[in-house]
Amino acid sequence: MSLSIQGKTAIVTGAGHGIGLAIGRHFAERGANVMFADCDEAALETELAGHDRESGPVRIFSGDLSARLALANLLSATLDAFDRVDILVNAHRLVKDSDPLEADPQEVEEMLRHNVLGSLRLSQIVARRMMKQAEAGGEGAQAGAQAGAIVNLTTLAGARPAPEKMGYSIACAAQEQATRNLALVLAPHRIRVNAVRFGSVMSHELQAALKTDPGLRSRMLAGTPLGRIAAPDELTEVVHYLVSEGARFVTGQVLTVDGGRSLVDAVTGAGPGARPV
């Protein structure tokens, strides 16, 4: 089973912070060319300041990743730099609180635009490029080698009600369904699409939430059977597997990485030593 991504070209969105940044760095350290994309140009410049961004394997792109033109420019910049794209990781997320009864419809639309439509549009244009590359190369079809791999990041909010973040919760569920639909359509082209649903992982958003809610950490630990919050690099290994040839027969799946948190009933606290989350 080959897990190598040496020489592959990846686009990673949401790569200015947290999990997206960790995934991009992980890929680059393992020999991949990586386009780090984010709306936060300052974060990209700061985090990747030590890399050769002229001729090395790392490039950055900043822009509104929910806008069609920016997405087209992102793909063009990647092709200009590396000539191809083999991997896409949609890690860009916008998380906001919302009142389920008083939520402004525009806020829900914003969650869908940033967390679903942007990723979907980017996946569509990248998939078309992957298909074109496969047609031009002609190699690998007989052996079942993949023509490309796409991974979407989502959270437990897509599988369990999160009324205080209703718009985001709806967006996560939609992202998972988009994953399944794209996987089915792209399978004949040897392009795999999967999602990683995470919970107890120290994301950029979780770091911010822990600062404003002193009791959140203890509640999360109580509701996580493994009793801890994972570091971002523990999620990157899972994403790495899904984009590698080692997972070439895996598509349309939503893989949960949450330390067992989804096993615990959020209302009754059912589980080994658990309390309500």
From TrEMBL:
Top-rank lineage group of the source organism: Bacteria
UniProt KW Cytoplasm keyword: no
One of the Pfam families matching this protein, by short name: adh_short_C2
InterPro entries per UniProt: NAD(P)-bd_dom_sf, SDR_fam
GO BP annotations listed: fatty acid biosynthetic process
Alphabetic keyword roster: Oxidoreductase
Keyword check for Oxidoreductase: yes
GO molecular function, a single term: oxidoreductase activity, acting on the CH-OH group of donors, NAD or NADP as acceptor
CDD domains named among the record's database cross-references: SDR_c
Similarity comment: family membership: Belongs to the short-chain dehydrogenases/reductases (SDR) family.
Name assigned to this protein: SDR family oxidoreductase
